């Protein structure tokens, strides 16, 4: 198979006109790949994505062709998917206020051009989920936030509005299912593409602990760092070492942090799907 793209986390191969997306055990924080892998992470994220794609299929078609028809060496962490013409936007939606948009909110009261009520804290629930798209940057660049109007100017209003509406629908459905199982999906990022018939199709991974913030609903309290099942844990550890995303070399993750991160990914998978991880 021909390796056509190596992302931060996934390797993408072309095969018989399709793509094979192979999820590695790599972990990236602030768009930097760390030198230490998290065992099982690729398989966990692949299984969770597949589980979600099924549960969202009545809202939006997805790119999955088969999870079985993949080279045996990648079994469990690879999916055969339709090769799509990717829509050049990272479709981010937020049900809660945290992370990269907090500074903008504090400075301007808006995120991506959308005005929010005053007095929100880190972790506050938003009155309505808010669509906060970013550009899809080239390798090595950072995605930049944009207003919905800017996305619409780039993609055309028809495509931009369909992406936004589907993103909000997927988030609402996903957040409701997850909350029922004790997990708050604070925010997530979706990617879409157009298939050969021009059908807007959900691609990439969906509602995983890499593409989303998963919080423990029991421990959620605005104004603090939320207990989470995602890589916030790795981000916080990386920051605590004094490392900055612009530094040349990222630090090795110590064994206890690797194990705790793996445990969080497993817990999210088990809580959401009701299945045992093995
Ligand atoms: P980047 O693309 O900037 O490297 P990334 O590091 O997040 O982003 P990965 O998630 O590791 O990339 O790799 C997956 C890549 O495959 C992404 O570029 C994604 O847009 C692309 N992709 C996912 N599904 C499809 C599809 N069905 N057709 C074409 N490309 C896809
Ligand atoms: Mg990605």
Automatic annotation (TrEMBL):
Q: Name one GO biological process term.
A: 'de novo' IMP biosynthetic process
Q: DNA damage: is it a keyword of this entry? A: no
Q: Which CDD domains match?
A: SAICAR_synt_Sc
Q: Which GO terms describe its cellular component?
A: cytoplasm
Question: What reaction(s) does this enzyme catalyze?
Answer: 5-amino-1-(5-phospho-D-ribosyl)imidazole-4-carboxylate + L-aspartate + ATP = (2S)-2-[5-amino-1-(5-phospho-beta-D-ribosyl)imidazole-4-carboxamido]succinate + ADP + phosphate + 2 H(+)
Task: List, in alphabetical order, the Gene Ontology terms for molecular function in this entry.
Answer: ATP binding; phosphoribosylaminoimidazolesuccinocarboxamide synthase activity
Which intervals hold domain SAICAR synthetase/ADE2 N-terminal? 4-244
Q: Which UniProt keywords apply?
A: ATP-binding, Ligase, Nucleotide-binding, Purine biosynthesis
**UniProt-listed Enzyme Commission number(s):** 6.3.2.6
Name its pathway.
Purine metabolism; IMP biosynthesis via de novo pathway; 5-amino-1-(5-phospho-D-ribosyl)imidazole-4-carboxamide from 5-amino-1-(5-phospho-D-ribosyl)imidazole-4-carboxylate: step 1/2
Q: Which superkingdom does the taxonomy of this entry point to?
A: Bacteria
Q: Which HAMAP family match?
A: SAICAR_synth
Regarding protein family, the annotation reads:
Belongs to the SAICAR synthetase family.
Protein's name in the database? Phosphoribosylaminoimidazole-succinocarboxamide synthase
Species of origin: Glycomyces artemisiae
Organism lineage: Bacteria, Bacillati, Actinomycetota, Actinomycetes, Glycomycetales
**Gene symbol?**
purC
